[in-house]
Amino acid sequence: MKPTESTPTESTPAESTPAESTPDHDGTARGGPLAGVPAWALGLIPLALIVASLVALLTVGGDTLGERPGPPAEEIAVEQTVLRDGEVELTVRNAGPDPVEVAQVFVNDAYVDYETDTEQVGRLGDQKLTLDYPWQEGSPMLVTLLTSTGATVEHEVDVAVATPEADASFFGLMALLGTYVGVIPVALGMLFLPFLGRVREHWVRIFMAATIGLLGFLAVDAYLEGTEIAEESTGAFGGVELLFIGAALAYFSLVALDRFLRGRRERAEAAGAGAFQLSLLVAIGIGLHNLGEGLAIGSAYAIGELALGAFLVFGFALHNTTEGLAIVAPLSKGERPSLARLAALGLIAGAPAILGAFIGALAYNPEVTALLIGIGIGALVQVIVQLVPAIRDRAGRALYPASVGGILAGVGVLYVTGLVISV
To answer: Are 302 and 166 spatial neighbours (Cβ–Cβ below 8 Å)?
Structure first.
């Protein structure tokens, strides 16, 4: 008798092998020794072990490595200079791994007495040195710091000018300067809105392309300026990388803001809200750029390198007038916003120049400045991404002869007005 062949049958749940533990909807795991432990706890346990290991390494681990051979690594730099009548105040930052002690200070190769708030400055710490030195206005100074190990650090002041006091006249001057170069030019540029409302849609796309050229030029210019400033910093908290950190923060923050505004628009179904949203993002991007511009103006004023002549103010005004045109370009074919909304857009774009002037003149710091300029760059890049769909033609192309011409025109306008400022 021929034996019957066994046919494979599906295994019943009781006969099946134990399945791998899978997470429940509440984040806990089924099966295994960690059954019932929430998923967040499974991530917190190794994180706590990592933190504990690093703390142990910092507290007791160094004693097991023995003493490091060779002289200490000393990396200090002057972060800020304040000039008052008969004295010079230096803020020194330690960017190296070892504590540093300043033993002597020389100005123009002459030994000077000084007072300090601490004997040593630790890693990433700062120290204030108040030099008793009768400096002369308009003269250069070379400050040499001699550490306890014999290392020297030089700091040069190109033109000695008294640091302005934070009084009412100072704040009034900074506010007036920021208004001249930020608020008024942007407001004047926004007066192009009625003109843009009368032109054909084809020309509106060209103006939008010119806006992309304007913002792209501002982003490149800000990157070059920020790189130069970052390279002059102490490096204790980073250099050029602060530009990229700031840019990433601004870019993703504005993406989140765009999603939020878009959700509100869809819920409210307000006519013309999309155009206003785009103009708001343009104003925010330009405002962050003008913040960096105000920082440069204020810091230059603080060290006496800014000529407050009418021609220079005219150059800044001409340069920033085009920014107002960029703000109102998205509004040309939508519902006209109220005067209050237009005024708000102008203040968002121009008023940061006033704040930047305050910060730059009172508490200029190269690393903070680099971070803020990076924020401006990220904002400008995000706005460009938002503007690209607005210049597409009926075939869906973003780059065609008219749009390329508009982009190049925007770049050319800012390039020429930039030459006016530098004259």
So the answer is: no
